[in-house]
Specification:
Keywords: Membrane, Transmembrane, Transmembrane helix. By secondary structure, the protein is mostly helical. It has a domain of 76 residues. Helices cover 88% and strands 0% of the residues. The protein contains four helices and no strands. It starts with a helix and ends with a helix.
């Protein structure tokens, strides 16, 4: 886990330095804060545009899918925050497997929820079909 974070940090730092070099060569005098402002704005609006398109399509079928994606994203942030906190405070072990198992637990329970939801929907559908047939035969 630590190695993965170091690899990601190294990539981001190298990218950061390259962007500063390119901006400097182009003659712009942007400080670090201005650069973060621009990059986060661009990244954020691209993610928003992608999310808007995907969620509009999903909303036609099921709000549950949107709720799952949102919840999974929040869970991803939480499990990473917990593992980073464990590294910073030296309490517990910072392990990638902990992240995977934490998310696996959420997905497992979510699938149980979906199964229960499908069973309830099937029962309602069968009941409505039976009710409709018995009212027709009267």
């Amino acid at each position: 886990m630590v190695e993965i974070l170091k690899l990601i940090a190294s990539f981001i730092n190298d990218l950061h330095d390259k962007v500063l070099d390119i901006v400097g060569i182009a003659g712009y005098t942007l400080n670090d804060k201005q650069l973060h402002f621009i990059f986060m704005a661009v990244i954020g609006i691209l993610i928003f545009a992608f999310t808007q398109i995907v969620f509009k399509k999903l909303a036609k079928y099921s709000i549950t899918a949107i709720s799952f994606i949102y919840t999974f994203t929040v869970m991803l942030v939480i499990v990473f925050a917990i593992e980073i906190q464990q590294k910073i405070t030296n309490r517990g072990n910072m392990e990638f497997a902990d992240i995977v198992y934490g998310l696996y637990g959420f997905i497992y329970v979510f699938l149980i929820y979906l199964l229960i939801k499908l069973i309830v929907l099937a029962i309602k559908k069968a009941y409505n079909k039976y009710s409709k047939n018995s009212s027709i035969s009267k």
